[in-house]
Amino acid sequence: RRLVARYNCTGCHVVEGRGGDIRRLYQEQPTFAPPMLNGEGEKVQADWLFDFVKAPVPIRPWLQLRMPTFGLSDEEANTVVGYFEALDRVQVPFVHLERAALATENVEAGKLLTSKDYFDCFSCHQRGAVKPQGPPEGWAPDLALAHARLGPEWIIKWLRDPQKVMPGTKMPSFFPGGPPDVLGGDDEAQIRALRDYILSLGMPEPSPQQAAHVVTGGPGTSQ
């Protein structure tokens, strides 16, 4: 909390339900405002957050507002990461993901669900160098960064109920009530498939040897 106060993080961001003063200037275009950081410890991977607070990179490149570089030491960056993890009671902060751990059938089903025939996710979300159509105020973060940035279990939680995770978000809720012709209409299976496809974006394809040892349930599944 002392570091958050020292660097005036709450001048831009909402942290522990407080702050975000600059967000008032973006009431007409809230997607252009700095993000709220409630739940950040659960949302993002520890390694990514450490690197980000040391050297911020654009997550929504179309924004003019930029996170400043504060020149944090490694100790300070670790303290910030630990602070957000403690707020969300994160038990296992480090995540290791490989493309081979994502079942092909899940990835393909998730890809189908993101298509224009179903949820049309890339009408809003950037995917690497491919930007959405329409004005930037309707755009959403780059999903090709998700495998390095987002926690696999947080993605599941987000897809189940975006409004519960972030009240007021423009992200639509698709569940319950997923399409009956994908994965037997099983909402939870569809959510896991979407998660696995999102995580696959930006990852190198697995070798044949790796693919032969796929864990069917995806990240977090035990055998």
What labels describe this entry?
Cytochrome Bc1 Complex, Chain D, domain 2; globular; two-stranded antiparallel ribbon; mainly alpha; 223 residues; 2 domains; 2% strand
- Unreliable runs, pLDDT <50, ≥5 residues? 212-216
Tell me what portion of residues adopts beta-strand conformation: under 5%
Number of helices: 10
Order of helices and strands: HEEHHHHHHHHH
Task: Provide the structure class.
Answer: mainly alpha
Number of strands: 2
Give the overall form: globular
**CATH class of the largest domain, please?**
Mainly Alpha
Under CATH, the homologous superfamily of the largest domain reads: Cytochrome c-like domain
Terminal Cα span: 40 Å
| CATH 2nd-level architecture of the largest domain | Orthogonal Bundle
Estimate the helix proportion, in percent.
Answer: 25-40%
Main sheet record = 2 strands, antiparallel
> What integer is the average pLDDT?
85
Strand order in the sheet with the most strands: 1-2
Number of self-contained structural domains: 2
Please give the radius of gyration in angstroms: 18 Å
CATH topology of the largest domain: Cytochrome Bc1 Complex, Chain D, domain 2
Write the layout of secondary structure elements.
Elements: H1 2-6, E1 14-15, E2 18-19, H2 40-43, H3 46-54, H4 74-87, H5 104-114, H6 146-149, H7 152-160, H8 162-165, H9 187-200, H10 208-211
Antiparallel strand pairs: 1-2
Polypeptide structure, described:
This protein has helices spanning 2-6, 40-43, 46-54, 74-87, 104-114, 146-149, 152-160, 162-165, 187-200, 208-211; strands at 14-15, 18-19. With 223 residues, the chain is mostly helical. Strands 1-2 form a two-stranded antiparallel sheet. Residues 212-216 have low confidence and may be disordered.
